[in-house]
Task: inverse folding
């Protein structure tokens, strides 16, 4: 396991000193499930302040699947899975 247990890999673990990045996200919601895909920029050097805009050199991807359902009577829940 890595730091994405605590922080979303695309948005925080990119090791930039700001703690955020620039990126784009697509999201689709259906009645019982949802899927999200995000692409983010990485810093030029580890913990650097300047982001690398050359996507062929460095980028971060994140895919999330979410399923809505009921495990117990009248108790709604969500199961989410992240793929990096």
Result:
């Amino acid at each position: 396991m890595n730091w994405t247990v605590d922080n979303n890999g695309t948005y925080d673990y990119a090791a930039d000193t700001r703690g955020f990045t620039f990126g784009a996200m697509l999201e689709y919601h259906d009645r019982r499930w949802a899927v999200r895909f995000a692409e983010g920029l990485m810093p030029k050097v580890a913990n650097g302040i300047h982001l690398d805009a050359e996507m062929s050199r460095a980028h971060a991807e994140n895919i999330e699947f979410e399923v809505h359902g009921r495990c117990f009577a009248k108790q709604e829940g969500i199961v989410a899975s992240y793929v990096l």
Q: What stands out?
A: The radius of gyration is 16 Å.
